[in-house]
Amino acid sequence: MKSNDTLLKLRRFEVNEKQQKIAEIEMMIVDFRRMADDLSHQIRVEEEACNIRDVNHFAYPTYAKAARQRRDNLLASIGDLEAKLAEARAELAESNEELKKSELVEERSLIEHDRSHAGPHALAVPLGLMQTLANRTLGS
Predict the structure, then answer these.
(1) Residues contacting 53, CB < 8 A, separation 6+
(2) Helix, strand, coil percent values for the chain (each to nearest 5)
(3) pLDDT range class, residue 117, cuts 50, 70, 90
(4) pLDDT greater than 60 at residue 1
(5) Euclidean distance between CA atoms 42 and 65, whole angstroms
(6) How far apart are CA 106 and CA 58, in angstroms?
(7) Which residues are CB-contacts of 11 (< 8 A; sequence separation ≥ 6)?
(8) What is the C-alpha separation between 139 and 36, in angstroms, rounded?
(9) How far apart are the first and last CA of the chain?
(10) Cα-Cα-Cα-Cα dihedral sign, residues 121, 125, 128, 134
(11) Does CATH place domain 2-139 in 3.30.465.10?
(12) Whole-prediction pTM value?
């Protein structure tokens, strides 16, 4: 019974860790999008100031070129993070399933433990409960 408890704690810890990882990735994506939007705004301001929008023009502002490169790098990083986010969500779903299985095993262990210590009347209550559940299921 102690090993089931330890396994259950481990599964809960894994789920918690994966939830935190997802939250961190989501926060990074939001931050990167905000920075990319800020850079886009700065690029527009710089282009309007010199009235040149062609990146290949010889007089295109150096700052705007650098800002474009940083923005493009951020957008690429966002794409990578979104892939990691999808993977992390799949891992979380898998960990949640494992947690549910462990909780069911723990619940069954507790029921078995209660039955073994309850004596000869232990089967009467679960049997009556099972009959009630069967009647509800069949009646539905």
Answers:
(1) 47
(2) 90, 0, 10
(3) confident
(4) no
(5) 11
(6) 71
(7) 95, 98, 99, 102, 103
(8) 59
(9) 36
(10) negative
(11) no
(12) 0.71
pLDDT for res 127: 57
Say how far residue 61 (Cα) sits from the centre of its chain: 41
CA 53 – CA 75 distance, rounded (Å)? 20
Q: Measure CA 72 to chain center.
A: 26
Query: How far apart, in whole angstroms, are the C-alpha atoms of residue 103 and residue 94?
Result: 14
Joined together, the tokens standing for residue 70 give 């940083």
At position 49, the amino acid (one-letter code) is A
Domain boundaries, the chain: 2-139
The pLDDT of residue 11 is 93
Looking at this protein, which amino acid is placed at residue 53?
R
Query: What would the two tokens of residue 100 be?
Result: 């549910």
- With a pLDDT cut of 90, the percent of the chain lying above it is 65
- Where b means 16+ CB within 10 Å and e means fewer, 37-51 reads eebeebbeebbeeee
